[in-house]
Amino acid sequence: MLEAYSDLTEFESIQFTNDPYEFFRQLKAESCSGELVTNMFAGGTNDTERDFITGFTKLYDYRKTTYSYATYFKEQGYYVEGAHPGYGWFYNRQNVNRYFGFENYYFLEQKYNEMTKDDEPSDEAFFNFLISQFENRPKDKPYFSFNVSYQNHGPYPGDKLNSDKEYATSAGLSEAGYNILNHYLYGIAKTDRAMRTLVEHLRETDEPVVLVIFGDHKPWLGDGSFVYKELGIDISRSDDQSYYNCYNTPYVIWANDAAKEVLGNDFS
Predict the structure, then answer these.
(1) pLDDT tens-digit profile of 103-122?
(2) Nearest alpha carbon to residue 56 among 65, 64, 47
(3) How many C-alpha atoms does 153 have within 13 Å on its Cβ side?
(4) Exposure string for 233-263, b = 16+ CB within 10 A, e = fewer
(5) pTM for the full model?
């Protein structure tokens, strides 16, 4: 599950000068793909991740053992773990994920700070960690891993650009809006490169692998969502389209050749 991941090419008012979704578009072409409707906008990652892992559509205050897909897979003989490069106390993940049945769940203070000195946990380092976990998993069991990224978390600075590469023009945008949008897309481009590394590694393994990627919510784009307004994107939720504009995020379900052969499914 990718933090604030959304495919903004769906909005025609954004004029792209460089493509931050290059690999993601390639991945969609060889996957089952579409859009899902989340419960949250610009925040509330824990709502989406807990709805996903439990199947519930209402966020509860989890304080005891709760049946989840992690429990289900463990009952089928899977080794079940996951990771998030944030602090375990945030959203009480260190306890709640244990209630869900995860045998191990790794957080910033346990694993991630060994890999990077960045103030912001990068997807490059995080995805490389996931590759390492996959390669070092117990080989006598099937494997289920549910991971939540942190990079691309808002807010994004509006006072300056953090990259010399432009991804969208300033057409229709204030200076702050231009900076916020391009800061976000710069992060998406970094995620795209990390995603390529992960997928190409899994593509080459002889083990059957199914990979699910989806966004947790639309990105924060300025106080009062002013960047959306400058772009003419209606997120008022006053009709179906504006509701989807506010809550939709993309997903892909991808499989390597070994999984396609085992499952008899071309995953497209």
Answers:
(1) 999 998 876 666 666 666 79
(2) 47
(3) 17
(4) bebeeeeeeeeebbbbbbbbbbbbeebeeee
(5) 0.95
